[in-house]
Design goal:
About 50% of the residues lie in helices and about 10% in strands. The chain is an alpha/beta fold and about 425 residues long. The chain has a six-stranded mixed sheet with strand order 1-2-3-4-5-6, with helices on both faces. A two-stranded antiparallel ribbon has the order 7-8. Helix 1 links the parallel strand 1 and strand 2. The longest helix has 29 residues. The relative contact order is 0.05.
Length: about 425
């Protein structure tokens, strides 16, 4: 039997035909929800999508709550919060009885980050996210097993009537792309398909439609990032001291820090945009899964406000992008060129050279009574082999190694503007050397 679908309908007729039967209701009225369920239910799927702003978005950002009257405040709380709670309650009774169902709630990026122009709107969306996470935990802890999920879609600025024309103009002037309603709808369908209880689906800066006809899951290249939020951990406060990549102690020996992160907080949230994962399975699924992108400058939801992020985005827009951070099809095209140098026959030709290099290291180690694994073997041998493959000048091996270290420093989360400047200078010297 196909699922029946409930959608909160605003007090206006849809602008375009939807093929559905519209029903007028006040989403903040519990009796209205009872009527909808009695007349059209029960529902196996509910998409709760009502929301309004306070219309207090002011360009000077000066204490917008001072212009908010009581009636407007109660209305936004009723629509944005009561509508979600009462709607969930109305459909959840049947879902709990049958043991199956899915609820997708439209929150907002404002439910995850501060929104200074409209604090009350931010309050309602934070409340919705908290409700979704808490209700999901209650479902997970229910005495009887329930195949019921509740998740939230958290889009950025969408091109809908909730944002006035003046505000839309300010948003686009700041270089932020407005989402289409269709893109948000795609993510809702993807959330229903994924069925990740307690997840927040973050959509920012535009989205592509599913690329395969009939599919319901958006790809990572569509700037969709599934952020299945980890439960708040008792050790959260202490674990913030475990991720200190700029600390000399961390840089000298990071492995004890990683071990404590794995055991106490394996999905460690640094801020609203960044999660550090340390378990092998999580890292592998993140790097290999279709829900994540490598091209950070293109797909990141984090605004480029610090100088390093701004410089990186400028370089990416001007073509300065590394194969390490490309997604298909660009990555596939460049990788196909690189793999020609790694055919079995080409690798076999390097065997004797590599063995000679390793023997030299081991001979020195035997004479000296030991060696440092990373500095004497693990780093220099691959570097020398790659230099041999690229026919780099052997008389400048020390410079090449220095340039390599300068370039790799830009991949670190602690990279500074000085690191980026040094890398650009190194590239300027490295390219003529590679052509010599």
């Amino acid at each position: 039997m196909s699922p029946r679908i409930s959608t909160q309908i605003p007090l206006k007729q849809p602008r375009k035909p939807t093929g559905a039967t519209p029903e007028r209701l006040d989403v903040g009225d519990s009796t209205a929800w009872t009527r909808i369920v009695d007349e059209h239910g029960p529902f196996d799927i509910a998409i709760l999508n009502a929301g309004i702003a306070t219309n207090q978005l002011r360009p000077d950002y000066t204490l917008p709550v001072l212009g908010l009257d009581d009636e407007r405040y109660r209305r936004i709380m009723s629509v944005n919060v009561d509508g979600v709670v009462l709607g969930s309650r109305a459909v959840l009774d049947h879902m709990a009885a049958t043991g199956f169902g899915d609820i997708v709630v439209t929150a907002s990026i404002a439910g995850l980050v501060p929104i200074a122009p409209d604090p009350v709107y931010g309050l309602t969306k934070h409340a919705v996210v908290g409700f979704v996470r808490s209700l999901a935990a209650a479902v997970d802890n229910h005495g009887e097993p329930l195949d019921v999920t509740i998740s939230a879609v958290c889009p950025g600025f969408a091109d809908t009537a909730i944002i006035d024309t003046e505000t839309k103009d300010r948003i686009t002037e700041n270089g932020i792309e407005l989402l289409t309603p269709e893109a948000v709808a795609d993510v809702m369908i993807g959330a229903l398909t994924e069925r990740r209880n307690g997840a927040q689906w973050v959509l920012w800066g535009g989205s592509t439609r599913p690329s395969t006809p009939g599919t319901t899951q958006s790809r990572a290249s569509s700037r969709l990032h599934s952020v299945a939020m980890a439960e708040e951990r008792a050790a959260r406060r202490g674990s913030t001291e475990l991720w200190r990549p700029a600390d000399p102690e961390f840089r000298a020996d990071p492995y004890p820090f990683y071990e404590r992160l794995r055991s106490t907080d394996p999905a460690h949230r640094l801020d609203e945009y960044t999660v550090v994962v340390t378990r092998h399975a999580d890292v592998s699924s993140t790097l290999r899964g279709p829900d994540f992108a490598r091209d950070i400058e293109r797909h990141s939801a984090a605004p480029a406000i610090d100088p390093v992020s701004v410089r990186r985005k400028e370089r990416a827009s001007n073509g300065g992008r590394s194969i390490l951070n490309l997604d298909p099809p660009d990555h596939t095209r460049l990788r196909r060129l690189v793999t020609q140098a790694f055919t079995p026959r080409a690798v076999e030709r390097l065997r004797a050279i590599t063995e000679r290099m390793v023997d030299e290291v081991l001979d020195r180690a035997a004479a000296d009574g030991g060696f440092e694994l990373i500095d004497d073997l693990a780093f220099p041998i691959p570097f020398r082999v790659i230099s041999e493959m690229l026919d780099m000048p052997t008389d400048r091996s020390d410079e090449l190694r220095d340039w390599s270290q300068i370039l790799t420093a830009t991949l670190e989360p602690t990279a500074t503007l000085a690191d980026l400047d040094a890398a650009e200078a190194a590239i300027g010297e490295l390219i003529p050397s590679s052509r010599a």
